[in-house]
Amino acid sequence: MKTQAIYDQNPEATDLLSRTWRSPPGFFGWFTHVNQSRIGYRFIVTSVIFFALAGVLALVMRLQLISPENTLLGADFYNQLFTMHGTTMMFFFAVPAMEGLGIYLVPLMIGTRDMSFPRLNAFGYYVYLIAGISLYVALFMGMAPAAGWFSYVPLANIAFSPGKGMDLWTTMITFIEISALAAAVELIVTILKQRAPGMTLNRMPLFVWSILVMSFMILFAMPTVMAGSVLLALDRAFDMQFFVAAGGGDALLWQHLFWFFGHPEVYIIMVPALGIVSTVITTFTQKPVFGYTALVLSLVATGFVSFGLWVHHMFTTGLPHLGLSFFTAASAMIAIPSGIQIFCWIASLWGARIRFATPMLFVLGFFAIFVIGGLTGVMVASIPFDSQVHDSYFVVAHFHYVLIGGAVFPFFAGLYYWYPKMTGRLMSERLGRWSFALIFAGTNLTFFPMHQLGLQGMPRRVYTYLSDMGWGELNFAITIAAFILAIGFLLTLINAVVSRTRGVAAGNNPWQAETLEWATTSPPQNYNFRHLPIVHSRTPLWDEPDSSHRQVVAGLRADRRELLITTLLEAKPQSVLIMPHPSVWPFLLALAVGFGFLGFMFQPLLFVAGFALSFFMIVGWLWPRKPWLDTGET
Fold first, then answer.
1. In 381-463, at which residue ranges do the beta strands (DSSP E only) sit?
2. Whole-number pLDDT of residue 4
3. Which of 349, 345, 353, 359 lies closest to 436 in space, CA to CA?
4. DSSP per residue over 505-548, as a string?
5. pTM above 0.90?
């Protein structure tokens, strides 16, 4: 009979726990990993690589625009770079980066050992990786999409975009959203059902709240762009004419489907960033954040209101003005919850002894950049003003201020803040401060002059311009500033790589933070917590510094992967969930699904073949095996 080894204080049980939760070593073992910390780390690293690639594309585009009538790039290749830059930033960097932080940190912050569906987690990463690699292989082969990251029809129809570039875009967008939806489901179930005993909804860290709101937004927003991309793929492959007016379709239908996803997408990216800001401010002021309830309600309100804004991207399309007025009101109203959060953060900073470490500097930079982006957002919410600056460089300036200020600055704050948790070492403060200074200066010098270019009439999405337009000097200055910005980002990349081996040892809680991720080792063990914590407040490590060693009374077996399931509202122990072991089947399933999606571009029947292969991979995935570790005991 199998011994039910209950985890306790003795070293033998600890060693058994380590072997139970270990990830297989070696090259082939890499494809079997399912632990949340490893998958989350991969999401973060991969998204940063895509961010760097998109940045290089942006620099090449700026070199093309540095002077009038430049011939560095041709029109088609410029459009390919433009499309790849936007697609990468929105689909392959921003959302996966925030999801990666959530996957890595949420189980640690709520006091559990893994995600609810670890194999689904791994499958989502491989889908994301395959989609990104496929898109960049197409770029290097000269067959990248060239209709913009928004792919407006009729430009994206096969009559105006022949070849496989747009087929790849529609296929990969559907493919990548599978990854986003998988991560969202994982995060929702994990947050609602695996919180440590005592961690009621009213005690959850604000970052966890932000990830929960983001995940629900993904569930409602992503299916619309998936539906749109499928319809566009059918238009191109079978001449279905969903978006062709001559065949009874409607080109504006694409814009409605895309922007119903596209504007919540901005807040899907930004909401986790707001959680990062609250976390960093709490730690570097060493006092609880002001207005916890107001901040939570603001996050939820942002998630709801963001679904009522999409038509402000379509103010110039000829829609009825009475209907547009409601979207003007919603576009202005979205500033209210953001304003509440900013005032709560100012109140938290007021009178505090702030520690101006690099994460805090990026948060302060976020305030300045994001507020400017928000103010110009209120401006373009006005129909008369938007009619003048629509599709001009004013809009380019606006959304870069919002996305860099609202997402990139907080992401870098979180990167510096949680880097010691992921690696056990601190990043260089000196390099970090230089990086912040260059990024802050570069952002303003690059994008603020674009407001003026827009007011002077320079349209976006153009690869060249005439010398007598008077845009040359500003474009020259913007290009130089873009390289300053790039150097700032490069310093952080160098800092992260060098500090991985040469950084100062951080210890378990170098910032003296209050949330549970700092209650375990840095980097954490595969099982996260040696003993599951019990929570009695919103700031457990400040209120009960010894709570990290408190164990749930029932205990968990050490010879098999088990998670504690708790009740939805009060987080009372409810049951034990037995988890699967590492497996190669998620990787194989991702390959099969990728084969089906990519094959559809060349021969629709290959999609059916990919579906059949996927069936066998799912059978292997679900094939039963003993859940416990064979210790040789009877």
1. 425-426
2. 40
3. 359
4. E--S-TT---SGGGGS-SSPPTTS-SS-----SSSHHHH-TTGG
5. yes
